[in-house]
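Q: My labmate handed me this sequence with no annotations at all. I'd like to see what the chain might look like in three dimensions before we decide whether it's worth expressing. Could you predict it?
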Amino acid sequence: MTHTNEEQGVETIGVIPSILMVLGGLVIAILPVIIQVIILMN
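A: Here is what I predict for the chain of 42 residues:
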């Protein structure tokens, strides 16, 4: 039981940073587009 729990913990610890990196990449990719839209609307 402990072994599976440890594996799950390692998986969770590994998944969260990768999700954050993906979200960060999306934000960095979309941010200039959002800024351009705001500038155009103003």
